[in-house]
Amino acid sequence: MTYLANPARYDQTGNRPMEFRRCGNSGLKLPAISLGLWHNFGGVDVFENYRAILQTAFDNGVTHFDLANNYGPPPGSAEENFGVIMKKDFIPYRDELVISTKAGYLMWPGPYGEWGSKKYLVSSLDQSLKRMGLDYVDIFYHHRPDPDTPLEETMAALDLIVRQGKALYVGISNYQADEAEKAIAILNRLGTPCLIHQPKYSMFERWVEGGLLEVLGREGVGCIPFSPLAQGLLTDKYLKGIPSDSRASKPHGFLQTSQVTPEVIAKLEQLNAIALNRGQSLAQMALAWLLKDERVTSVLIGASRVSQLLDSLDCLKNKNFSQDELTRIEEILK
Ligand SMILES: NC(=O)c1ccc[n+]([C@@H]2O[C@H](COP(=O)([O-])OP(=O)(O)OC[C@H]3O[C@@H](n4cnc5c(N)ncnc54)[C@H](OP(=O)(O)O)[C@@H]3O)[C@@H](O)[C@H]2O)c1
């Protein structure tokens, strides 16, 4: 069936108005909620399920989809599947979408299939564009710092890719504060400013508060936290054991059952009580808690079904925290 996007997708008076936030000092606005295709969109997943997730996202103003060369499994399959959906559903809407991909992790054998050389980054993006059937991506990221390649070479590769017209903007991911600061300075010098940084950040993962957020705020670079729900831990799904269809119980899932400990559950129960008191699900509170910081441009969520996506989108209905709630949350997290 031909997909027709919801005509009310940008309507600010509807039930789920999307909020758009400026990405650092750039001219690009991103939806407060972006959708990532790391899990649930690969060769092992169900086409009609992930197609419905993508359509529902766009129908609700989620204009940003995040990929990487290695998402699957198998690696590359999330980009291929996204390419199929692009062709079937989203081609008429290409100019309304911000599509990102990345390179940095192992993608093919030999010395040029991972890390940060110009050789790897340029070829990897060419492959990604073919898999997705796109002429360009909106954002291309270096996925992780490379201890062996000079940062100047990696940043020059990002600059080159923009000048070739294969990406409109560039970003970095998993760079520590000092590495990020150096990368941002090099990109500024080259004339291709760093648009955005993608770090792991959630109530359970706070390293970015030790300097990175400060650098990004000062330099006018956006921040898009990944795994904002700690891969599903920061929801109510594990409160009564590990469901058989959850990420923790999937053989290819990155969340390990060993991470679902009694200590974690005890924290989740207390956080859940605060969330319920706020009239929110735990997932909604965890996302709203990140979005209260203006340096956070967008939260990059995952979803294995449409109902989760809709639940997460509703976090925007209450982003205000009282000082008492914030103090109680800190007490639980420490
Ligand atoms: N740059 C990097 O190095 C890097 C690394 C990792 C991820 N990322 C990006 O970040 C994106 C998001 O990562 P993530 O998938 O780990 O994010 P996440 O939002 O922390 O976790 C998503 C998972 O949580 C569960 N979930 C989501 N919403 C829920 C809800 N409302 N209620 C109950 N359960 C819910 C689902 O798991 P179930 O399967 O259990 O249902 C879902 O697959 C990725 O797709 C990718 O684009 C980037």
Protein model, in words:
This protein is an alpha/beta fold. The protein has 10 helices and 10 strands. The model has no long low-confidence stretch (mean pLDDT about 95). Bound molecules: NADP nicotinamide-adenine-dinucleotide phosphate. NADP nicotinamide-adenine-dinucleotide phosphate binds near residues 174, 229, 237 and 283. The site of NADP nicotinamide-adenine-dinucleotide phosphate has 30 residues, from strand 10 and helix 9.
Radius of gyration: 19 Å
> Into which percentage range does the β-strand content fall?
5-15%
Based on Cα principal axes, name the global outline. Answer: globular
| Number of discrete helical segments | 10
Ligand set = NADP nicotinamide-adenine-dinucleotide phosphate
Q: How many strand units? A: 10
User: What is the makeup of the main sheet?
Assistant: 8 strands, parallel
Low-confidence stretches: none
> Order of strands in the sheet with the most strands?
9-8-7-6-5-4-3-10
Topology as a string of helices (H) and strands (E) = EEEHEHEHEHEHEHEHHEHH
Mean pLDDT metric: 97
How far apart, in Å, are the first and last alpha carbons? 50 Å
Tell me the helix content.
25-40%
Based on helices, strands and strand pairing, what is the structural class?
alpha/beta
Helix and strand arrangement:
Layout (H helix, E strand, L loop, with lengths): L19 E3 L6 E3 L1 E4 L10 H13 L4 E3 L10 H14 L7 E6 L14 H15 L4 E6 L8 H13 L3 E7 L3 H14 L3 E5 L13 H8 L2 E2 L38 H16 L4 H10 L7 E3 L4 H8 L9 H11 L1
Parallel strand pairs: 3-4, 3-10, 4-5, 5-6, 6-7, 7-8, 8-9
Antiparallel strand pairs: 1-2
The chain binds NADP nicotinamide-adenine-dinucleotide phosphate (NAP).
